[in-house]
């Protein structure tokens, strides 16, 4: 199960990998929270899409229950947030916690949040990167599973840097999902690792 809100390049990477018989995971459905290009990507690969928008619900708690139900209907073993720009609520986390992977465009714990690429540029760091981590109730605070660095060039702007980071995220996410479904993760307090 993939949750997305954006252009869907991470989703495309996963669906392309999953189209190969030898890849150990399949995408059962895509849930989006707004009209977005990820919906077109899912349609192109013939994957069911459910739109569950916060604005269609009386409040965040009701949306939390609705999106939990929408995902639960597909009975996924793993939920991937791939450019999903909403914070998941307590109902969702109590149902799927420990089985939600997020891809983040920075080397956490540096630059959490929605502006990670701009923040890294603004800060003047020389290296940033991509992180795959388990989702907990904080913002990009869950146990880290995989990371890879990306060098920042002096003439990078947000778009050029994000594009190179995304290329790394595509590879990392495909590897992380395969590792998760074949080997699982072990958890020792807050430090989770692939087993
Ligand atoms: C990725 O960089 C992801 O880490 C961030 O949003 C971007 C999503 O890209 N949260 P796309 O929509 O998959 O192209």
TrEMBL record:
Reactions mediated catalytically: N(1)-(5-phospho-beta-D-ribosyl)glycinamide + (6R)-10-formyltetrahydrofolate = N(2)-formyl-N(1)-(5-phospho-beta-D-ribosyl)glycinamide + (6S)-5,6,7,8-tetrahydrofolate + H(+)
EC numbers for this chain: 2.1.2.2
All copies of domain Formyl transferase N-terminal, residue ranges: 2-177
Keyword line: Purine biosynthesis, Transferase
Keyword Transferase: yes
Transferase listed as a keyword: yes
PROSITE patterns: GART
Pathway: Purine metabolism; IMP biosynthesis via de novo pathway; N(2)-formyl-N(1)-(5-phospho-D-ribosyl)glycinamide from N(1)-(5-phospho-D-ribosyl)glycinamide (10-formyl THF route): step 1/1
The family this protein is said to belong to: Belongs to the GART family.
Protein name, UniProt field: Phosphoribosylglycinamide formyltransferase
Originating species: Williamsia serinedens
């Amino acid at each position: 199960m993939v949750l997305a809100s954006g252009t869907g390049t991470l989703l495309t990477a996963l669906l392309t990998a999953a189209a190969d018989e030898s890849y150990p995971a399949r995408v059962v459905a895509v849930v989006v929270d707004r009209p977005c290009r990820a919906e077109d990507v899912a349609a192109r690969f013939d994957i069911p899409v459910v739109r569950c928008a916060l604005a269609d619900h009386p409040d965040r708690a009701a949306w939390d229950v609705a999106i939990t139900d929408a995902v639960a209907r597909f009975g996924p073993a793993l939920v991937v947030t791939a450019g999903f720009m909403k914070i998941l609520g307590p109902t969702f986390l109590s149902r799927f916690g420990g089985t939600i992977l997020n891809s983040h465009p920075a080397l956490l714990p540096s630059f959490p949040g929605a502006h990670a690429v701009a923040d890294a540029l603004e800060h003047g760091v020389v290296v940033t990167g991509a992180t795959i981590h388990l989702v907990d109730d904080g913002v990009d605070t869950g146990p880290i599973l995989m990371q890879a660095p990306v060098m920042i060039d002096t003439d990078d702007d947000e778009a050029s840097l994000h594009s190179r980071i995304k290329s790394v995220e595509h590879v990392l996410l495909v590897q992380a999902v395969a590792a998760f479904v074949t080997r699982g993760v072990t958890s020792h307090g807050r430090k989770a690792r692939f087993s």
